[in-house]
Amino acid sequence: MTKSPWTEHPTRTLRWRPGDRLDAVDPRATPGYHGGKRAGKRLLAEHGAELSDLQERLFAHGRTGGVRNVLLVLQGMDTSGKGGIVRHVVGMVDPQGVRCRGFGRPTPEEQARGYLWRIRNALPDAGLLGVFDRSHYEQVLVVRVDALEPPATWQAHYDEINDFEAEIADAGTAIVKVVLAISPEEQLERLVSRLDRPDKHWKYDPSDLRAREQWDEYQAAYQDMLDRTSTDVAPWYVVPADRKWFSRLAVGELLRHELRGLDLGWPAADFDVQRQRRLLTGR
Ligand code: AMP
Ligand code: MG
């Protein structure tokens, strides 16, 4: 048996606990992991096979009347690597079993229907792995920082969101919520490199500078979000994200753990296998 490079599993080291401080999180750290970058990349690739197998079980479960599914919620400042998680972690499994949605500024129609409407519409069906690149949590982040709603309105969202998540968890959804914690220094480098590279210009949004200027306000909003909405049915994980290979490895590990926890076997055939074999082969 190969020795695990995890001294402590990310479900323990990264899970948000009451009293935790976001400003105490070191975005360059690799908590619980003592391997290096190369080993980390290799390990993620190795886990891809199991992740893929687990996801196929989930899909089969959904096809045979099962109600379980998984929702991965990704939050983080611009350039924190949300898209990279989708591409490099979620991208390891069969895309037929995945439902990804990104959430930008709401359209007037979405605005009129309330913030949870577009979220409900994007929830994964049974058997699917859903991924939210940003989410309903923007309603207590950008909405708060940019004062898009009066305080009493956005403050009510914490409880509303907890109720909403309890409801979908009850209906069969395993929820994994991840904040990718990046440092302002690393963000600066990533934004500059977007400007340096014409193939990355499409990712650069001049309005990201505004959010960068509001760094401390965002940190405060994230702190309160974590304190108010990390629940037993839908805990938050804060993943150091200055090293992309680590954040991807850690999120892959969190997903693997969650899918394993569903303990899904392969659905039994609802037909007579021996008879079908005889019919097929004439033997
Ligand atoms: P990106 O993730 O780079 O595509 O950017 C999406 C943008 O949409 C970010 O600036 C978010 O802050 C913004 N956004 C997402 N959800 C909301 C929301 N509910 N209200 C206002 N802005 C939002
Ligand atoms: Mg952006």
Automatic annotation (TrEMBL):
InterPro entries reported for this sequence: P-loop_NTPase, PPK2-rel_1, PPK2-related
A Pfam short name: PPK2
Superkingdom classification of source: Bacteria
Keywords of this entry: Kinase, Transferase
GO molecular function: kinase activity
Polyphosphate kinase-2-related domain sequence ranges: 38-258
The UniProt record lists the keyword Transferase: yes
Protein name in the entry: PPK2 family polyphosphate kinase
UniProt lineage: Bacteria, Bacillati, Actinomycetota, Actinomycetes, Micrococcales
